[in-house]
Write a structure and sequence with these properties.
35% helix; 6 helices; 240 residues; alpha/beta
Length: 240
Amino acid sequence: MRNVRKFKNKVVVVTGGAHGIGQAIVEDFRKEGAVVEVIDKTPGTYFVGDIGNKETLEAFSSYVLEKHSHIDYLINNALLIMKGIDECSYEEFQYALSVGVTAPFYLTKLFKDSFNKGAVIVNISSSRDCMSQANTESYTAAKGGITALIHALMMSLRGHVRVNSISPGRINTHAHTHTGPDAYQQPSGRVGNPQDISSMVLFLCSPQASFINGENICIDGGMTKQMICHEDAGWYLEDK
């Protein structure tokens, strides 16, 4: 049987596509025949730039549209800094919001009139949009913002572009590998991998997901639904 590539000749834009989840998204789209344009800070054979910078976003969008004149899918994935209230400066907090919230908004604005009919935006958020550890304010605030952004964009782009987000939990990437208790504490018995997220991205961009709009999908192995009490499932709280 002939292998029909689901996204043949579709134009995909991925921010932060050089590593981890972003790299998996890029590779999987290309396997399905898509043309993928990547922007990342890491030097490479794609558009290199910092999406926390307004002029970079404008230059990148112009670059994409000069090559293709339109886009089909925008995947906002770029990684944020994670600093907390004790060490995060005003400028660092603002930068996290610029990368995590302003850039997805502004890229959407720049591409607004160039989205093909049936286009899709997928924002990569985090399960930290609804749960936290101490000293993670910059990352958590930005992820909460990008999750909330989807339903506003969905309403503004209704009838033309679908907008959804994904909130990954712990994911093993090239830079971070979670084993031992970090892994087996998960109700699913393991930590996620980039393909767990990439598969959902491609599904949300497919016709099979055409009635999913304005939704955030948490992919975390069940961790955000797990109630933890003292002496439950091997957990103990030490008295201070």
